[in-house]
Amino acid sequence: MFNLVHFLLFVLHHLLQAQALTLPQDISALKAFKSSIKQSSIPSWSCLASWDFSDDPCAVPHRTRFICGVSCSPDATRITQITLDPIGYSGQLTPLISQLTQLTTLDLSDNYFFGRIPSSISSLRNLQTLTLTSNSFSGSIPDSVTALKSLETLDLSHNALSGKLPKSLNSLTSLKRLDLSYNKLTGFLPELPFNLLELALKANSLSGYVSKSTFDGLTRLEVVELSDNSFSGTLGAWFFLLPSLQQVDLANNSFTHVEISKPAGGNSDLVAVNLGFNKIEGNLPANFADYPMLSSLSLRYNRLRGAIPLGYSKKKSLRRLFLDGNFLIGTPPAEFFAGDTEVTGSLGDNCLRGCPANSQLCSPRQKSYAICKRAYSGKPRS
Questions:
Q1: How many other C-beta atoms lie within 10 A of the C-beta of residue 252?
Q2: What Rg value do the Cα atoms of the chain yield, rounded?
Q3: Range of the domain at 145
Q4: pLDDT tens sequence across 252-291
């Protein structure tokens, strides 16, 4: 008798799951989502083509309808994920997406969505991942996106977004990964969310200083990629002392000075730094040699002068060193050219003396004496 009861409950459970259980507002939102995409961009074998509303989206099993692209809650009543296949869907993101209030993931990456990101997206209070990368979204990033308190990943990279970053970006207290690279964003950096692990804003038109207040309290930040913008001024010593910092790419900006302090207690996780193609003046920062795990350093094509610090050549962790395109003088440390050296990179296009012509490190050749003389307003001396 006991086994019979369990069997009947099992059958009843699966019969109920096979019925239409999805909340009507979720179904209408899915219908609006699909209808906002050009029919001509939906191949017959695609995820969207399988969305046949003659069946319930969360019916179990899906079999031939809703075979991919959507996921449902355990009780089969709510849509929790939309993850489209990257096959070139073209259309706009409907404002009715706001009805999917239990959505945790929205991933439309690598398609041809265009138009604005609807401000109604702020209704998706359970959203943890918003990935719209590699589409053609335009207009500004809606300020309402900062209402998504559960958001952990925000990736809007490789679109045509313009305007300024939302001022209250730091209100995204759960955000860990932010990638807005390869857009047309302008203006300054606002204060950033304190739980951030990775920040990528490459290839925009952002400007101004990189200030300490922007990064205040970011004790978990590991990766900063701000290359190919118009940031300027001095990069303060506080920046490289961020306690969890590992990788930094600030190349192709307009920084004029960089301050480097020794890491506190000699401890730092910093592994790679790229400050190439800026306008940095002064001597090479000798304190980079005190960062114990630093393996890649680029300061190429700046306006640096003076000699190469001896500490650079004695640093066992250093594997890649690019100092080419500056006005460095003197004789490069002999350790760079020892038979057991593992350093690759370039010391070329400087004003160095005695850089062995047979060493790959010395390519390209040094600047002419006339250029170096003008740079030092007379004979360059080490």
A1: 19
A2: 28
A3: 72-376
A4: 999 999 999 999 888 999 999 999 999 999 999 999 999 9
- Which pairing describes strands 70-72 and 79-83: parallel, antiparallel, or unpaired? antiparallel
Q: Structural domain tally of the chain?
A: 1
26 occurs within a structural domain: no
Domain assignment of residue 170, yes or no: yes
Q: In the block, which residue shows the tokens 């991942």?
A: 129
The domain that contains 339 carries what CATH number?
3.80.10.10
The percentage of residues in the chain with a pLDDT greater than 70, rounded to a whole number, is: 93
| Res. 301: pLDDT tops 70 | yes
Residue showing tokens 């990736």: 155
pLDDT (0 to 100) of residue 156: 98
CA 163 to chain centre: 18
Contact yes or no for 264/288 (Cβ under 8 A): no
Tell me the pLDDT tens digit for each residue of 14-45: 544 445 599 999 999 999 999 999 999 999 99
Answer whether residue 287 is part of any domain. Answer: yes
Query: Is 151 a member of any domain?
Result: yes
pLDDT in tens, 39-88: 999 999 999 999 999 999 998 877 678 989 999 999 999 999 999 999 99
What pLDDT is attached to residue 19? 56
